[in-house]
Amino acid sequence: MTSMTGYGFGEVQTLDFVLSVEVKSYNNRFLEIAHVMPPSFSLFEAEIDSSVKAVASRGRVEVNVKFKSLRSQVQVTVDEGMLAQYAEAVSKIEKITGKQVVFSFADLCAVQNLISETNDLEADAYRPALKEALDIAMKQFAKSRKVEGEATYNDLVRLLDGLSQSFDVVKTDAGKIEDSLRESLLAKFAELLKDRGYDEGRFLQEVAILLVKYSINEEICRLTSHITEAYRLINGDEPCGKKMDFLCQEMNREINTIGSKNILVEISQKVVTMKDCLENIREQIRNIE
Question: Among 73, 178, 191, 226, which residue is least crowded by beta carbons within 10 Å?
C-alpha cells in the first residue's frame, strides 16, 4: 500500500555548480504534476514527468529544480578589430588637435558591439546531473510514500477488524430481531383481541410479512461480501484508493439499512461502532493511492 503524500530530495554538486531536485506530494483525486524550475530547464519536463509516473498514480506532485552556478556563466568578448580602428582614430585626433583624448570604461561600453556578453548556460549540458539528482529524490520520495502507506495499512487493518467484530455480534443477534418482533406482536394482539378471539393462522401470516420487511439477512450477506473484498484490496499490490472509496459507500449503505430496520438495543450499539470505524476508514483511504 502506498500513501499519496511523500517527500524526496536529491542534490549534485561540482566545482562549477549545485543542482538540486525536491519532490513532494499531497492528496489529490488524480495525478497532477507541477514544476518549478529555471526556464532553461523546461526541456526536461517530459523526463521528470516520466520519472514521477513510474512511482505515483495519484496525488499532486510538485517538483522543484534549483540551479546555482559557482562561477560566472557570462562570457565577455571584445571586438579587437573594432577596438584597433577606434584606437587608430583616437591617435589621429590627438595628432591633429595636439590634445590627449581620454576614454573611460563606460565610454567603451557605450560603443555598440564593441563589448558583448554571452551566457554559456546550456541546460542540456546539465542533463546527467539532473538525472542523478532526480533519481536520488525519487528513491527517497517512493520510500517515504511506502513507509507512510504501511502505517496507513496497519491502521486500516485495525479499523476493519473492529468493524468486523461488531458485525459478528450483529450477525449473531440478527435472529433475535425476528423472535423479538414475533413475541412483541403476539403479546400486543393477544391483549387487544383477548375478548374477541383471533385467527392465529392469519396472524402468523401477517407476522411473517412483517418479518420479511424487517429482516436484515440480505444486508448481512452483502456487507459480509464487502468486508471480505476490503481485506482483499488492502492486502493486494495494486493501488486501491478509488476502489476502497466506492466500497466504503456500499458498506455505509448496508450499515444504515441495518440500523433503520433494527429494533434491538444491542444491535443499535454495534451499528454505531461500525459507523464510527467506517468513517475512520474513509478518512484513511483519502491518503492512499
Answer: 191
pTM over 0.85: no
What are residue 19's phi and psi, to 5 degrees?
-125, 125
CA-CA distance, 34 to 140, in Å (whole number)? Answer: 18
**Which H helix or E strand runs over 75?**
strand 74-78
CA dist 114 and 134 (Å) reads 42
pLDDT tens figures, 238-285: 889 999 999 999 999 999 999 988 878 889 999 999 999 999 999 999
Residues 186, 95: one domain? no
Cα-based distances in Å from 189 to 145, 197, 200: 63, 10, 10
Q: Residue 58, Cα to own-chain centre: how many angstroms?
A: 5
Residues 115 and 220 grouped into a single domain: no
Close Cβ partners of 13 (under 8 Å, ≥ 6 residues apart): 19
Structure confidence at residue 174 as a pLDDT band (50, 70, 90): confident
Q: Which domain holds residue 150?
A: 146-285
Q: What's the alpha-carbon Rg for the chain, to the nearest Å?
A: 38
CA–CA separation, 30 and 242 (whole Å): 10
- The answer to whether 1 and 152 have CB atoms below 8 angstroms apart is yes
Select from 208, 205, 213, 227 the least CA-distant residue to 260: 213
